[in-house]
Amino acid sequence: MFTERKITVGVTGGIAAYKAADIVSWLSKNGAGVQVAMTKGACAFIDPLVFKTLSKRPVAVDIFDQAEAYNVPHLDCAACDLFVVVPATANILAKAAHGLADDLLSAALLATKAPVLFAPAMHCDMYTNPVTQENIAALCRRGWRMIAPDSGVLACGAQGVGRLASVQQIQEAITEALLPARPLQGKRVLVTAGPTYEYLDPVRFIGNRSSGKMGYALAEAACRAGADVTLISGPCALATPAGVQRIDVISGADMAQACFSVYDGVDIVIMAAAVADYRPEEYIPHKQKKGAEKTVRLVENQDILAALGQERGDRLLIGFAAETENLAEYARIKLRKKNLDMIIANDVSQKGAGFDGDTNIITSIVRGETEDTLRSWPLMSKKQAAEQIIELITGLPRFPYIGSQKEEKQK
Ligand code: CTP
What's the predicted TM-score (pTM) here? Predict the structure, then answer.
């Protein structure tokens, strides 16, 4: 389940430290690479040998450890996919909240860029102390998460909140943090990207300005959300995102043919390509010599998205609208005319929303029964915009009825 994930488990000095052994054992059995980092206090409660045996790795305790196993011990511990501290004492919460780094575990926490989960466990009076609560609130504000402790009889006999959450609760929180929701799991998504080139002769073409970055970012985001992604790409110099199947095309006619060839099995289409609207009526198979004035007659290319829209069935169709004026009005017309569920409009004359850059300024328009929902987004990276668009797709009114979910519903 966690193959190729590296998890650092921090263990601090409380009676619940022995329960961390169950967590380390479960992570190892599920394929995770586990690095245990203990405080000196934790070593008073449980021998590092227990964790070394379960994780099959030396346990990090000393920030100045010269052992061969580490490069820089606290940085090695910091570099992971998830950092879990179980149990987390009031002391480690206070140190983490204030950026103290006077031992290996606190230094590793200060250095980590990974998501952090704390499973606090302490005496109820320490837990409910406003100082501890403020520290917890400060850590949560920074995006670090707490697995809330249980109430009950504590090790000292007192009754109250402060017992380490159950092993099952900790396992669930770790699973959720490591395996984020994949809302497009089982969905087949077609993304188009880049320009198309319409050749006049073997060396000259007409086409639209497009780097392909928005479409490639969408293919990557859809793949991360669990979809099976086919990317139909016009000519552009970008690497294929991992896990994405790419089909290269040159002209609008090639792109249309490629789209129709995969359309049958597709649940969602995101048409981000800047398809050239026109192509030269005639292709001259040798290089045209300069000299005389030339006139090129252009004929209209097929509107691929409009054609897909006419046979959309249960599919979700998402289009783009590149405009320089009357953004919402023109985009709305395209939304209806091409029979789409959503259109992403951008004013390409705005700074930051251009063709070649890494950023975009988008307006989403979702088609409604009677009224469309329009939402404008601030400047963001194309990668962020792609994440946002994927999130919007999963929230579309028709989304739950596509593909396998619909079949399940009909049973
Ligand atoms: N599109 C398409 N086939 C075309 C032209 C456009 O599939 N021949 C798609 C684009 O990929 C985009 C949407 O249609 O998702 C709108 O493209 P855009 O260039 O903004 O508008 P056009 O429909 O071409 O209209 P105009 O150029 O007049 O604005």
Answer: 0.67
